[in-house]
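Chapter summary example.
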Amino acid sequence: MTSKSPADDSLDIDDFTTVVETFAGIFIRLPSVEKLSFTTLSVLHTLTHDGPKRLSELTATEQVSQPAVTQLVARLERDGLVERRPDPGDRRAVLVRVTAAGARIVRTRHRDRVAQLALLIDQLTPEERSAVGAALPALMRMAALGGHS
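The structure predicted for these 149 residues follows.
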């Protein structure tokens, strides 16, 4: 298998993957506020951005077992970060939704990431900042194609 993109030989997919993996690791750890487990933060982020979900949907999106999601949601509910409500489309099912306190954690972490990234971006040359800016539309399109717009 080649690591070059079939559509454009100038893009080395292996290099791109390495950069994305490295950056993602740094990005995940940037916020210095609201330090919670990765899975907890991922559930709060999913519910904040995608809306209420059934436990089975959270199991799929978060890639953890059903018992783990059930336990996590119970803890988040106890902490006031999520709430369970009947699914209006199926009264036998329950939807988990983020509370104002849970959404506040997501917003606070986003603001902190913006501040932390600004410090890194300030260390780039004008040409590097321009290149990052020029790449944003393509990266946003890739995110949309991957189902995470």
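To summarize the output: Strands lie at 4-5, 8-12, 82-87, 90-98.
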